[in-house]
């Protein structure tokens, strides 16, 4: 398309990718097929332990489900918020944006521990519910998947809301007028015009939230706790505490593979929708 | 004079590089070195107390690299056995791992001038003990009765306040072993522990990472946990209602040891560093608030929250054989994961 | 490729809408704007506008940006609720109806085609929203695309169409729902000049054929001139004049209209005397002219004369007459069959249009005269705002 040899311009990036991304990844893959971290001899033991073990498979499912449920929860909140942002005045717009990016401005550790304060047995939610008499005894929130999803919804919200707002802002307001003048109801306009046009942003948000929530090591281990088994925690434990690097590598590759599969599926969905 | 100041300058410069986390082999000049240190309280204490004392006594500049014990071993392992620092500071479990992996230089206790102030057995051919940790049960006296011992933790009235943490840390491992012993198990047979844990699991308000435990205690999610005296002192200083209970079978103790990394080019400075660490003034300063270390120097009196009069009492504490524990730990960790999973 | 227009128009099935017209007998619907006032905060965008659009007529709303023409159009469309006033179609108020139920078709300045839909899907959108049967939708979409000669582009996305093609699709989409009123919001603003005239003529033809009543918003006087049956010149939220384009040009109601529609030379003066039905006016540039005016002026009153470029003529500098005044020709430019003279008379700049005969005159001293046949507009001087 362009001049011959233009590919050479991309060479430094390609080399950097190869050296700093591809090579370690290959090393990781090699480790997963070895008996130890020195790549002594070939073994399928680690993969057998991941794929043939109910506990590890359950952890894979848990991790994927956590990502999926968090995506649904953020969608449920982000879509109305983004629509509100679309029709709001400048003051409310700034407020929504500020609230959306606030989680990005605090450190992950602070955010996570703040959620302990909120979700704990003597936390904000339980104290409030107890004082209004809505519940007789504290309900377990911390160390439950509900609590974790609740926290992740806040933590991951900007990743959903910002691409969605950007996508909606790109829609020419005249299109909404045109739809309404042509006799479409608000619901029809949302379904036929707004949703298809916001779909790329929506899918980008879903992919980001899914990838981020399913790999949120700190939130998963601190808010979720030891009774919920997710892959990132198992990877860390096998690599750093148990020193079983082949198993850690196999688990890490499983995590990466499952997240990539979902991301690829979402992107394919987006492309198909764009051509439909 | 000129030589000295130039050397100091160079040491400082190299120390800065080391602190910046560059994969730079520890400083070459005779008067400088790099030491691993636990992040947080230890990092703070050693920078404030040990570094100036070392500089004053031996003219050695030390750069610290904050790393947890397991991370020190992992880093040395990842670097094919050559640690990017001169001195390790380790708990018993990682210490045994380091020995198995041959990550340490041979250690000659005779080169420590303060050797005589250490209790017998606190220095050997791999390193020297520099502090101790005393592990027992911490509880909130306003919420629960004082547990008499490890056995109590399985009773519903205590279990519903208990925070569990697994075999990932030294204090977690030895606490769980002690709990196993209290229900008829042993280091060789952890089955009774898991059987009993299964019975109380639905009551337990938290199963958490060790780092999350103090926060959960502070927030009232849990009111009982197994931990070390250092954590109790720290939380107390922040106004948390917390007391340390010595179990009826005795508190468990373990030493924190320092080791010289294999291939270190600052061996002299490393010995001086460890020697200064166990010296009476440094141990006394570290035993005092706000650091509240458990001292190993026989001339230093332990702090208020440490349940002993002098270092000699350490002998009466329960100790463990980590050469037996380490091979079983991966299995226990995996088992704990599976037992706890909902 | 293009089908004859009457044929395609015939294909549009109009039997189910009794109010709609037969293609060959334009009758259309009447649109009334009655005392409409729209305010944005403190600013009054439309200030009590009353206008009628006759059935089948194109009315242009012409004015500079900010004059309220677009606001008025959006009020008719139903996007803006007026503070006061009514919009009526065939005498029935439609103010309570949402845009989709008003029977208006809109062509937007940006065309507002749905980018994720094909041309056919765009045209079908309004019909589907109205729940028309699928077979009817397909038939009408084909007919509407054929009417704008876009039947070969049904499957294309807007991105793959040129500006002019997009506009045709937008028109087809607006017409497919068989609107009583067609609203055109600056429909040619995004097109280059060469394409505009063709499309203007074509839209006018289609509008005639469909007999649809249309309102065209534009800031381009040529566009209004070529397309509209009548134009309403707006300024500051008010209508200054509503008339046929030629009337607006020949007899502007205000100095603003004179200046906004066509070029206008402004000459100040004083009424010297009445001469029968005419006035003798002493111009400040140094001439005395006799003018007819429908307005009444008192002797001695200051007046403003707005003369079109073709109302004035160049005279030889030596040919001194009371009706002409001295000036200096700065430059003459040939413009097709005409010559445009750029002239200054003291501080007053003048533009003159004359038929071109031979070489343009050389710059220098000249005299300018008002042609005896010219009927320039005369206003009280105070009207010159």
From TrEMBL, chain A:
Keyword Repeat part of the UniProt annotation: no
Keywords for this protein: Cell membrane, Membrane, Transmembrane, Transmembrane helix, Transport
Location of the protein in the cell: Cell membrane
Keyword Nucleotide-binding found: no
Transmembrane region(s): 66-88, 95-118, 149-168, 202-223, 243-269
InterPro entries (alphabetical): MetI-like, MetI-like_sf
UniProt GO BP: transmembrane transport
Membrane topology: Multi-pass membrane protein
GO cellular component: plasma membrane
Span of the signal peptide: none
Primary localisation category: membrane
Highest taxon in the source lineage: Bacteria
Residue ranges of domain ABC transmembrane type-1 in the record: 60-266
Gene3D superfamilies named among the record's database cross-references: MetI-like
Record family assignment: Belongs to the binding-protein-dependent transport system permease family. CysTW subfamily.
Protein name: ABC transporter permease
Organism: Teichococcus aestuarii
Lineage: Bacteria, Pseudomonadati, Pseudomonadota, Alphaproteobacteria, Acetobacterales
TrEMBL record, chain B:
Domain of life per record: Bacteria
InterPro entries: TAT_signal
GO cellular component labels: outer membrane-bounded periplasmic space
Record carries keyword Signal: yes
PROSITE patterns given in the database record: TAT
Pfam families xrefs: SBP_bac_6 (PF13343)
Residues making up the signal peptide according to the UniProt record: 1-29
MF term (GO), any: thiamine binding
SUPFAM superfamilies named in the record: Periplasmic binding protein-like II (SSF53850)
Keywords: Signal
Transmembrane segments: none
GO terms (BP aspect): thiamine transport
Protein name: ABC transporter substrate-binding protein
Species name: Teichococcus aestuarii
């Amino acid at each position: 398309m362009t001049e011959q040899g233009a590919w050479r311009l991309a060479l430094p990036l390609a080399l950097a990718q190869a050296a700093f991304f591809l090579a370690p990844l290959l090393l990781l893959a090699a480790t997963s097929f070895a008996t130890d971290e020195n790549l002594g001899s070939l073994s399928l033991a680690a993969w057998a332990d991941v794929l043939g073990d109910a506990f590890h498979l359950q952890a894979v499912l848990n991790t994927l489900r956590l990502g999926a449920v968090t995506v649904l929860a953020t969608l449920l909140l982000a879509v109305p918020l983004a629509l509100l942002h679309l029709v709001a005045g400048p003051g409310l717009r700034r407020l929504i944006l500020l609230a959306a990016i606030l989680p990005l401005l605090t450190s992950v550790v602070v955010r996570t521990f703040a959620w302990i304060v909120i979700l704990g047995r003597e936390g904000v939610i339980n104290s409030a519910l107890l004082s209004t008499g809505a519940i007789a005894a504290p309900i377990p929130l911390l160390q439950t998947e509900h609590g974790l999803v609740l926290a992740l919804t806040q933590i991951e919200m900007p990743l959903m809301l910002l691409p969605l707002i950007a996508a909606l802002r790109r829609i020419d307001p005249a299109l909404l007028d045109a739809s309404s003048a042509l006799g479409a109801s608000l619901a029809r306009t949302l379904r036929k015009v707004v949703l298809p046009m916001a779909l790329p942003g929506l899918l980008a948000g879903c992919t980001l939230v899914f990838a981020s929530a399913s790999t949120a090591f700190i939130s998963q281990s601190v808010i979720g706790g030891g009774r919920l088994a997710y892959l990132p925690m198992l990877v860390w434990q096998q690599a750093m505490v148990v020193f079983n690097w082949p198993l850690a590598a196999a688990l890490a590759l499983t995590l990466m593979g499952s997240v990539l599969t979902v991301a690829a599926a979402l992107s394919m969905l987006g492309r198909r929708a764009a051509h439909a | 004079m000129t030589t000295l100041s130039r050397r100091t300058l160079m040491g400082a410069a190299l120390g800065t590089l080391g602190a910046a986390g560059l994969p730079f082999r520890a400083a070459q000049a005779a008067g400088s070195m790099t030491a691993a240190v636990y992040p947080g309280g230890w990092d703070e204490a050693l920078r404030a107390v040990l570094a100036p004392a070392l500089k004053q006594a031996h003219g050695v500049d030390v750069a610290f690299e904050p790393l947890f014990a397991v991370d020190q071993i992992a880093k040395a392992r990842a670097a094919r056995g050559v640690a990017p620092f001169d001195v390790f500071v380790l708990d018993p479990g990682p210490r045994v791992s380091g020995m198995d992996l041959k990550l340490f230089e041979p250690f000659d206790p005779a080169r420590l001038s303060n050797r005589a102030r250490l209790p017998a057995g606190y220095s050997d051919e791999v390193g020297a003990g520099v502090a101790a940790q005393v592990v027992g049960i911490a509880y909130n006296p306003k919420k629960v009765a004082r547990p008499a011992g490890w056995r109590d933790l399985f009773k519903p009235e205590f279990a519903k306040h208990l925070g569990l943490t697994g075999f990932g840390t030294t204090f977690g491992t030895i606490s769980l072993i002690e709990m196993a012993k209290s229900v008829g198990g042993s280091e060789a047979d952890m089955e009774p522990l898991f059987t009993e844990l299964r019975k109380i699991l639905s009551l337990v308000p938290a199963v958490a990472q060790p780092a999350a435990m103090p926060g959960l205690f502070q927030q009232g999610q849990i009111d009982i946990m197994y931990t070390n005296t250092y954590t109790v002192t720290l939380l107390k200083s922040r106004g948390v209602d917390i007391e340390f209970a010595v179990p009826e079978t005795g508190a468990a103790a373990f030493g924190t040891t320092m080791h010289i990394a294999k291939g270190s080019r600052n061996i002299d400075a490393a010995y001086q560093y460890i020697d200064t660490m166990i010296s009476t003034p440094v141990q006394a300063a570290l035993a005092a608030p706000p650091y509240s270390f458990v001292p190993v120097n026989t001339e230093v009196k332990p702090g208020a929250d440490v349940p002993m009069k002098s270092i000699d009492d350490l002998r009466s504490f329960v100790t463990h054989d980590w050469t037996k524990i380490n091979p079983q730990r991966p299995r226990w960790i995996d088992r704990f994961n599976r037992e706890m999973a909902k | 490729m293009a089908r004859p227009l009457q044929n395609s128009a015939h294909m549009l099935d109009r039997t189910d809408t009794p109010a709609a017209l037969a293609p060959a007998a334009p009758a259309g619907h009447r649109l009334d704007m009655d005392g409409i006032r729209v305010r944005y905060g403190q600013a009054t965008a439309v200030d009590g506008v009353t206008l009628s659009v006759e059935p089948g007529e194109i009315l242009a709303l012409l004015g500079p940006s900010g004059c309220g023409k677009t606001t008025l159009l959006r009020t008719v469309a139903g996007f803006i609720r007026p503070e006061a006033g009514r919009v009526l179609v065939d005498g029935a108020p439609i103010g309570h109806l949402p845009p989709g139920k008003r029977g208006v078709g809109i062509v937007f300045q940006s065309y507002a085609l749905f980018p994720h839909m094909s041309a056919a899907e765009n045209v079908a959108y309004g019909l589907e929203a109205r729940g028309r049967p699928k077979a009817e939708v397909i038939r009408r979409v084909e007919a509407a695309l054929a009417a704008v000669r876009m039947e070969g582009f049904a499957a294309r996305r807007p991105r793959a169409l040129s500006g002019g093609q997009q506009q045709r699709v937008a028109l087809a989409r607006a017409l497919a729902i068989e609107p009583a009123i067609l609203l055109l919001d600056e429909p040619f603003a995004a097109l280059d000049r060469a394409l505009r005239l063709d499309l203007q003529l074509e839209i006018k033809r289609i509008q005639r054929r469909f007999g649809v009543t249309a309102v065209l918003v534009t800031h381009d006087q040529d566009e209004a001139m070529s397309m509209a049956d009548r134009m309403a010149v707006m300024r500051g939220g008010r209508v200054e004049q509503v008339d046929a384009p030629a009337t607006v040009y020949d007899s502007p109601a205000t100095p603003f209209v004179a200046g906004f529609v066509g070029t206008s030379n402004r000459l100040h003066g004083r009424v010297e005397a009445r001469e029968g039905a005419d006035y003798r006016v002493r111009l400040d540039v140094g001439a005395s002219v006799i003018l007819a005016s429908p307005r009444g002026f008192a002797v001695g009153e200051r007046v403003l004369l707005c003369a079109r470029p073709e109302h004035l003529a160049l005279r030889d500098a030596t040919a001194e007459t009371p009706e002409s005044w001295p000036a200096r020709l700065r430059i003459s430019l040939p413009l097709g069959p005409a010559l445009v003279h750029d002239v200054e008379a003291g501080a007053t700049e003048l533009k003159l249009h004359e038929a071109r005969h031979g070489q343009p005159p050389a710059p220098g001293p000249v005299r300018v005269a008002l042609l005896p046949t010219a009927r320039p507009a005369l206003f009280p001087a105070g009207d010159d705002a």
